[in-house]
Amino acid sequence: MQLFIMAIDNMAEKETTLLLLKPEVVESESYPDLMMAIMQEIEQLEGIEIGAGVRLRLNKSEVEQFYSLAYARHGEKIRRYLDYMTSRGLVVFLIEGKDARRRVKEKLGSTDPANAENGTIRKKFGRDSMEKSRKEGRAVLNLAHAPDSEEEFDVNYNVLKKYLE
Fold it and tell me: Annotated catalytic sites, by residue?
């Protein structure tokens, strides 16, 4: 009986998140190598399972829905992502594991690659900064998006599910 209860507990701890690789990864000259390097960083997280990547392109309405919670928090300054995220291709991966959302977000690092912690994906592979992007009036090139809450995952997933099924 105890073994059965442990198995149920382990299943309950698993959660699903996603990782969306942004245009600067997908459309870069080093796309396959950069994507593989980023995904190898995620694979190093113990107990994490990564689903197949799906390449897609979102329209403006989908990007608005995808970032609706960010728009609510940050207002119009986030709108610069609209053109950027619809300009080129993206790749999305579903990721599952114990505490996956927090662990993937931590591995990704700070939104600003210039301030990302050592050992994070954005620190290792990022080449941009919030300061530079603000001065140039564009979105920060921070490689990827991962939701930071269950609510944000639900919003993101609802936009992407037609591509993932």
Answer: 145
